[in-house]
C-alpha cells in the first residue's frame, strides 16, 4: 500500500481557479458533444439494422472486401493466413451482440483535442472458435468485422471520412475512425469477456508461435511464452466492461472527475510514458476505494494526493482498483501491477522501470510547483516534446539485419513489434551497464515525431487504401539525464569475492578486471580510459551494441555534443583562480600599509569561468621598456590582454575627511603604497595608477580597486540632504546618478558576482553555457547590445528554483533552455525573476510583478529582476532596445530550431558552424577593419620581458564602436562581434527617415525631395572614416560589389 499525507486544502486558491479555467478550455462544448453523440447514434443504428449482401466468404481469402471498397487492415501474409487453424473458416456479417457507447464527456474527463467517444462493438461468438486466440486468428476475424463496419458506415452514413487507426504499441488491433467534419467517433471490435477464460492469457503461456509469425527459421522459439500478446488480447476482450466500469465509478463524483482530467493533462504535457488515461482513472479508483482520496476534498487536494502516491510508487507495487488486497499476485509485465476488478488485466503494463524513474522526478517537481501561479500552464497545458526533456541525446540506426535477429522473434508479429522488443532488451542492457550513470532516461522512435515534435502514438490510413508497408530500418533516439557518475572512467562492479562476479564478467564479455581502491576495496571493474571523459557513455553504448547486437559504432551518433571550440580551456580558468588565491593572500599579508585589507572580492567573470577568452597574458608582440611598463612599438599592435577586476575593502578609519578630491588623492596614495609593498616585500610586479593598482601574478594581470565606504556614505548623505531641502530635479539628478553608479559598481555588481560565483561552483555547466551564449551573441554581432550581467542572469534563471524544475546538466540542454526562454518569455507583460538567493516566496514575487505592471511604461523592454535589482533595469536600462530585442528573439528561434532538428534529423548538423556563422546581409553598410590593427586578432609572438607590465584592456575596435555610438547612436545601430571583430555592421534606424523638419533633428539629417528629413548617410560615413583612421580597411554594402577603399 502507498503511505502519504492527506495534503493541504487548497479550495478557493487562485492556482486552483487557474487550473479549472485550463480544464474548461480542454472540454467539449455542449453543441459539439451533441453532434458527436448524434453521429455515434447514427452509426449504432446503421450497424444494428444492417443486413448487407456480399459480407461473407472464407476469412482467409477476403476477395469480397475489394468489391465493398475497403481493405483488410492487418499486415498478414498469405502464408501466415494459411498456417492459421480454426474450426470456423467462413465469415459472414452477423448483427453485433451489443454496441456500447463509451463517452468520456459523461464523466467530464474528455479532451477536446482527442477522440472522446468510442463505440465498442461486441461480435457474435458464432464467428469464433474456442481456440481462435492462437496465432492471430481472433485478430484476423476481428479485422474482418471492422472492415464490414467500415463498409456499412460508408454506405449508410453520409458525408463521413473513414480511416483505420493502429496504435503503434500493438499492430494487430486497429480501430475504425469515423470523421464528419470536426466530429470524430472511434469504433472498436471485441469478443466480449465471456468468450474465453482469463487463465488462457496468463503471461507464462505462449499463444503465438514464432514460426507462424516469422517463418521456419524461428521454430526454435515456438515454445516461448507470449506475455505482451496475451495482455493485448485480454485487454481487447475486456475493453467494454473495463471502460464502462471506470465510468460508473467516476459518475456523480465531479471533483474526482476534474482531478482525473487534470492529471491526464499533466501526464500528456509532461510526456510521461506509461501514465495512460486508463491507468490514471484506474489508479484514482484504487485510491478512492483505499480511502486515500474522497469526493469531499477539492480538486487540487485530490491531485496532490495522486502525485504523492506517484512520488512514493516503488517497483514491485501490487494493487487493485478495488483497493487494498492481501492475496494479490504481481504481474510479470513491468514493475507495477494494478489489477482491474476481474483480476485479469494489469492496466499499469505500460510503466517500465525507466518510466517509473521519470514518474518520480516529475511527480516531485510538480508537487513543489502546485500553488505557484506561474507554473499552472507549464504543468497542465504546455506540452513538452521528447527532444526537450533530457540532457543528452544519441541517435541510433536499427537496421534490417538487427531486426532479423533470432532474439527478437519471441512474442512479436510485425517489424514494429520486433523493434519494440529490441528496445526492451536494449533498455535492460543499458540499465545493467550504465545504471549508476543515469538518473532517468527514455527512448523514442523518430517515425513517431509529428511536425511539432510531439510524439504521435498511432498510424492511420484511409479504409480504401492498403495499409502502409512497415519499414525495415528505424532510427531511434535515446535521451539521458545523467547522474554524477556520467563521465566516470570506471564501471565498478561487485567485490572480488561476491557471487555476482561471474554475472558481471559475463556481461562485459570477460573484459572486466580486478582493481584495488584506496579504501582497500577489491572490486571487479570495467575501464574506459584514464580520466573522466565526455565520450565515456558513448564508448559503453558502442560496446553493448557491438557485442550484443553486432551494431557498428557508426550507427550511433551523439547529437547533443558541443564542440570544445565554443568553450574556454578549463586549465586557463584554473590558473586564473589559483593566481587570484595568491593575490588574496598577498594583499592581506602586505605590511606597512596605512590601512589593512579586510576583504578581497573577485568581480571579474574570468574568476567564475564565464568568459570565453583566457585571462593569461603570457605573450606579447614586443615593445620598449620604459620604467616598469612595456610600451608597444609604433609599427606593431599589442595582443589584447584582459585584466581581472578585483575589489578590496579596507579596515574602518575616521581620518578620510569629508572632501571628495582629498579622498580620491588618499586612495591613489594607498595604491602607491600597496604597489611598493607588493614589490619590496613579495617581489611581485605592481603598478599604481590614479584609479587602481595593477598586479602581475603568474601571467595574470589583476586590476585592484578600493571600495571606499566613506565615499558611499557621503554620497547617500548628499542625496538625502538635497531631498530634504526640496532641491530641484536638475540639482538632485546628478547626485542621484553618481550614487546609483557607485552602488551599481561597488554594491550590486559585487553582490551579484558573489552569487553567480556560487552558482558556477555548484554547476560547472552554468559557466560553459554563459561562454557559449557570449560566443553565440558575438557571432550574431550583438556583443555591444547585451550587458555581461544580463547574459549571466538569463543563464542563471535555468539553474535556480531546483525544487520546481530540473537543473540542466549538459551544455546542450542548458543552452537550448536559455534560447527557449528568450523566445517564449513575454517580455512586454512579465519580468524575468531570477531568485539567486532562493529567498523570495510567492507573495514576494507577486509584489514584484505588480510593481512591474505599474512601472511598465518607464521600464526597459527587457526586465530581469534579481535579488540585487528588484526593479530589473540596472543591467538592461540602455540595451537591448525593442528593435534589438526582437532581433535577439528571432535569432534565438532560428538557433533553437537547428539544435532541435539535429536531434532527429537523418544527417547530423554541424552545430559549431551554424552557431558561429556570421552574416552581414542584414546590415546597410559593413566596415571592414585592418586585421593587423585589431588587437583581438593579433598573433602572439615571444614572451613578456621580465619586470614589465603589458598593455591591458586595450581594444581599439570596441573603443571605435563606443565613439560611433556617442556621435551617431541616435541615427544607426553599430553591430560588433567582440570575440572576432573583423568587421562592424551598420544599420540605419528606419524611424529616423521621413521626419518633419525641426531644429533638434537637423544634426545628421538632410532634406529629401519631399522636404522631409532623412539620415545624411554620407555625413555619417565621413565621420566614421575620420574616427576610424587607419583601422578602417574598406566600406561595402552587403550583396553589392561596390567597395570603397
Description of the molecule:
- The protein has 1045 residues and is α+β, with helices and mostly antiparallel strands.
- Helices cover 38% and strands 16% of the residues.
- The strands form ten sheets. Strands 3-4-7-6-5-12 form a six-stranded mixed beta sheet, with helices on both faces.
- Helix 20 (709-724) packs antiparallel against helix 21.
- Mean pLDDT is 90; it is low at 1-12.
- Keywords: Chromosome, Nucleus, RNA-binding.
- InterPro entries: NOL6/Upt22 (IPR005554), Nrap_D1 (IPR035082), Nrap_D3 (IPR035368), Nrap_D4 (IPR035369), Nrap_D5 (IPR035370), Nrap_D6 (IPR035371).
- Count structural domains: 4
Average pLDDT across residues? 90
Evaluate the radius of gyration.
36 Å
**In which order are the strands of the major sheet placed?**
3-4-7-6-5-12
Helix content: 25-40%
Ends apart, CA distance between termini: 82 Å
> Outline, from the CA principal axes?
elongated
Report strand %. Answer: 15-25%
The tally of beta strands, per DSSP, is 33
Category by helix and strand content: alpha+beta
Tally of individual helices = 29
Largest sheet, in brief, is: 6 strands, mixed
List the helices and strands and how they pair.
Layout: H1 14-26, H2 30-49, E1 56-58, H3 64-68, H4 78-83, E2 90-92, E3 98-103, E4 117-122, H5 137-156, E5 161-167, E6 175-180, E7 183-190, H6 210-214, H7 227-237, H8 239-250, H9 254-269, H10 277-289, H11 299-311, E8 318-320, E9 337-339, H12 353-369, H13 376-380, E10 392-398, H14 400-403, H15 415-434, E11 438-445, E12 458-462, E13 474-482, E14 490-495, H16 501-507, E15 513-516, E16 522-527, H17 536-549, E17 556-558, H18 570-589, E18 597-602, E19 624-626, E20 629-631, E21 644-650, H19 660-682, E22 685-688, E23 693-697, E24 700-706, H20 709-724, H21 729-762, H22 764-779, H23 788-796, H24 811-824, E25 832-834, H25 842-855, E26 864-866, H26 882-904, H27 911-916, E27 925-929, H28 956-968, E28 972-976, E29 983-988, E30 1005-1007, E31 1013-1015, H29 1017-1028, E32 1032-1036, E33 1043-1044
Parallel strand pairs: 4-7, 8-9, 21-24, 25-26
Antiparallel strand pairs: 1-2, 3-4, 5-6, 5-12, 6-7, 10-13, 10-17, 11-13, 14-16, 15-16, 18-21, 19-20, 22-23, 23-24, 27-29, 27-32, 28-29, 30-31, 32-33
Amino acid at each position: 500500500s502507498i503511505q502519504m499525507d492527506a495534503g493541504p486544502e487548497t479550495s478557493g486558491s487562485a492556482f486552483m481557479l487557474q487550473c479549472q479555467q485550463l480544464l474548461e478550455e480542454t472540454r467539449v462544448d455542449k453543441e459539439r458533444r451533441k453532434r458527436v453523440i448524434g453521429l455515434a447514434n447514427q452509426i449504432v443504428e446503421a450497424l444494428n439494422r444492417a443486413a448487407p449482401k456480399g459480407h461473407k466468404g472464407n476469412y482467409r481469402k477476403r476477395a469480397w472486401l475489394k468489391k465493398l471498397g475497403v481493405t483488410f487492415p492487418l499486415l498478414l501474409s498469405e502464408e501466415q493466413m494459411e498456417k492459421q487453424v480454426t474450426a470456423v473458416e467462413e465469415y459472414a456479417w452477423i448483427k453485433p451482440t451489443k454496441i456500447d457507447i463509451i463517452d468520456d464527456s459523461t464523466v467530464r474527463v474528455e479532451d477536446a483535442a482527442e477522440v472522446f467517444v468510442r463505440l465498442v462493438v461486441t461480435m457474435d461468438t458464432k464467428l469464433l472458435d474456442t481456440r481462435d486466440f492462437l496465432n492471430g486468428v481472433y485478430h484476423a476475424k476481428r479485422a474482418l468485422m471492422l472492415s464490414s463496419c467500415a463498409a456499412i458506415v460508408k454506405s449508410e452514413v453520409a458525408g463521413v471520412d473513414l480511416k483505420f487507426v493502429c496504435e503503434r504499441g500493438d499492430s494487430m488491433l486497429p480501430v475504425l475512425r469515423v470523421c464528419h467534419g470536426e466530429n470524430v467517433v472511434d469504433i472498436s471490435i471485441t469478443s466480449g469477456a465471456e468468450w474465453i477464460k482469463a487463465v488462457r492469457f496468463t503471461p507464462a503461456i505462449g499463444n503465438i508461435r514464432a514460426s507462424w509469425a516469422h517463418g521456419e527459421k524461428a521454430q526454435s522459439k515456438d515454445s516461448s511464452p507470449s506475455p505482451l500478446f496475451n495482455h493485448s488480447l485480454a485487454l481487447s476482450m475486456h475493453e467494454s466492461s473495463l471502460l464502462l466500469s471506470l465510468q460508473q465509478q467516476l459518475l456523480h463524483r465531479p471533483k474526482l472527475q476534474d482531478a482525473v482530467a487534470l492529471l491526464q493533462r499533466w501526464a500528456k504535457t509532461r510526456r510521461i510514458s506509461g501514465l495512460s488515461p486508463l491507468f490514471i482513472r484506474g489508479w484514482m479508483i484504487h485510491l478512492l476505494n483505499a480511502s486515500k482520496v474522497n469526493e469531499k476534498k477539492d480538486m487540487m487536494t485530490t491531485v496532490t494526493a495522486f502525485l504523492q502516491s506517484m512520488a512514493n510508487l516503488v517497483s514491485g507495487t501490487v494493487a487493485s482498483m478495488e483497493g487494498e488486497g492481501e492475496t494479490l499476485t504481481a504481474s510479470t509485465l513491468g514493475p507495477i501491477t494494478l489489477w482491474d476488478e476481474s483480476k485479469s488485466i494489469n492496466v499499469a503494463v505500460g510503466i517500465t522501470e525507466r518510466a517509473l524513474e521519470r514518474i518520480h522526478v516529475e511527480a516531485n517537481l510538480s508537487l513543489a510547483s502546485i500553488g505557484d501561479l506561474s507554473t499552472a500552464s507549464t504543468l497542465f497545458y504546455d506540452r513538452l516534446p521528447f527532444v526537450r526533456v533530457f540532457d543528452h541525446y544519441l541517435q541510433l540506426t536499427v537496421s534490417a539485419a538487427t531486426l532479423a535477429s533470432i532474439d527478437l522473434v519471441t512474442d512479436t508479429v510485425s517489424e514494429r513489434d520486433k523493434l519494440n522488443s529490441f528496445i526492451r532488451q536494449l533498455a535492460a542492457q543499458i540499465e545493467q551497464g550504465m545504471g549508476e550513470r543515469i538518473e532517468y532516461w527514455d527512448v523514442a522512435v523518430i517515425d513517431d515525431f509529428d511536425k511539432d515534435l510531439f510524439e504521435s502514438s498511432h498510424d492511420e490510413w484511409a479504409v480504401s487504401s492498403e495499409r502502409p508497408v512497415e519499414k525495415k530500418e528505424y532510427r531511434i533516439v535515446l535521451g539521458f539525464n545523467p547522474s554524477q557518475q556520467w563521465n566516470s572512467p570506471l564501471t565498478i562492479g561487485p567485490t572480488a569475492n561476491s557471487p555476482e562476479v561471474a554475472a558481471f564478467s559475463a556481461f562485459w564479455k570477460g573484459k572486466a578486471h580486478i582493481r584495488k581502491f584506496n579504501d582497500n576495496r577489491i572490486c571487479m571493474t570495467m575501464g574506459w580510459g584514464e580520466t573522466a571523459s565526455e565520450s565515456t557513455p558513448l564508448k559503453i553504448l558502442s560496446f553493448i551494441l557491438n557485442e550484443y547486437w553486432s551494431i557498428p559504432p557508426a550507427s550511433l551518433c551523439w547529437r547533443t555534443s558541443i564542440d570544445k571550440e565554443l568553450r574556454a580551456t578549463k586549465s586557463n580558468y584554473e590558473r586564473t583562480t589559483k593566481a587570484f588565491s595568491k593575490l588574496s593572500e598577498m594583499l592581506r599579508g602586505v605590511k606597512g600599509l596605512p590601512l589593512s585589507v579586510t576583504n578581497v572580492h573577485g568581480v571579474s567573470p574570468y574568476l567564475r569561468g564565464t568568459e570565453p577568452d583566457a585571462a593569461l597574458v603570457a605573450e606579447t608582440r614586443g615593445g620598449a621598456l620604459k620604467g616598469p611598463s612595456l610600451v608597444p612599438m609604433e609599427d606593431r599592435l599589442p595582443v589584447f590582454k584582459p585584466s581581472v577586476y578585483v575589489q578590496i575593502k579596507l579596515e574602518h578609519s575616521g581620518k578620510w575627511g569629508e572632501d571628495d578630491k582629498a579622498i580620491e588623492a588618499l586612495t591613489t596614495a594607498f595604491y602607491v603604497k600597496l604597489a611598493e609593498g607588493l614589490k619590496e616585500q613579495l617581489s611581485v610586479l605592481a603598478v599604481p595608477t590614479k584609479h587602481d593598482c595593477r598586479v602581475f601574478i603568474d601571467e595574470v594581470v589583476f586590476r585592484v580597486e578600493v571600495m571606499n565606504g566613506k565615499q558611499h556614505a557621503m554620497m547617500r548623505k548628499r542625496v538625502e540632504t538635497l531631498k530634504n531641502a526640496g532641491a530641484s530635479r536638475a540639482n538632485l539628478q546628478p547626485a542621484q546618478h553618481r550614487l546609483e553608479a557607485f552602488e551599481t559598481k561597488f554594491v550590486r555588481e559585487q553582490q551579484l558576482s558573489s552569487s553567480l560565483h556560487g552558482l558556477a561552483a555548484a554547476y560547472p555547466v552554468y559557466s560553459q553555457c554563459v561562454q557559449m551564449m557570449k560566443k553565440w551573441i558575438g557571432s550574431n554581432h550583438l556583443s555591444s547590445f547585451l550587458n555581461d550581467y544580463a547574459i549571466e542572469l538569463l543563464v542563471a534563471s535555468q539553474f535556480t528554483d531546483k525544487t520546481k524544475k530540473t537543473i540542466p546538466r549538459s551544455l546542450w540542454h542548458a543552452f537550448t533552455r536559455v534560447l527557449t526562454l528568450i523566445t517564449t518569455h513575454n517580455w512586454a507583460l512579465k519580468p524575468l525573476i531570477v531568485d539567486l538567493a532562493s529567498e523570495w516566496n510567492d507573495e514576494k514575487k507577486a509584489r514584484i510583478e505588480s510593481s512591474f505592471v505599474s512601472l511598465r511604461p518607464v521600464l526597459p523592454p527587457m526586465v530581469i529582476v534579481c535579488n540585487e535589482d528588484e526593479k530589473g533595469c540596472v543591467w538592461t536600462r540602455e540595451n537591448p532596445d525593442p528593435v534589438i530585442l526582437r532581433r535577439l528573439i528571432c535569432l534565438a528561434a532560428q538557433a533553437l530550431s537547428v539544435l532541435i532538428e539535429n536531434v532527429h534529423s537523418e544527417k547530423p548538423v554541424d552545430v559549431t558552424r551554424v552557431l558561429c556563422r556570421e552574416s552581414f546581409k542584414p546590415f546597410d553598410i559593413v566596415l571592414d577593419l585592418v586585421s593587423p590593427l585589431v588587437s583581438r586578432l593579433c598573433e602572439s609572438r615571444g614572451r613578456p620581458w621580465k619586470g614589465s607590465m603589458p598593455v591591458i584592456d586595450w581594444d581599439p575596435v570596441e573603443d571605435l564602436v563606443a565613439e560611433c555610438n556617442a556621435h551617431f547612436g541616435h541615427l544607426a545601430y553599430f553591430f560588433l562581434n567582440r570575440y572576432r571583430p573583423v568587421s562592424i555592421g551598420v544599420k540605419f534606424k528606419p524611424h529616423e527617415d521621413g521626419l518633419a523638419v525641426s531644429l533638434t533633428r537637423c544634426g545628421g539629417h538632410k532634406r529629401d525631395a519631399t522636404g522631409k528629413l532623412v539620415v545624411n548617410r554620407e555625413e555619417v560615413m565621413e565621420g566614421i572614416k575620420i574616427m576610424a583612421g587607419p583601422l578602417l580597411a574598406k566600406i561595402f554594402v552587403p550583396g553589392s560589389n561596390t567597395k570603397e577603399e
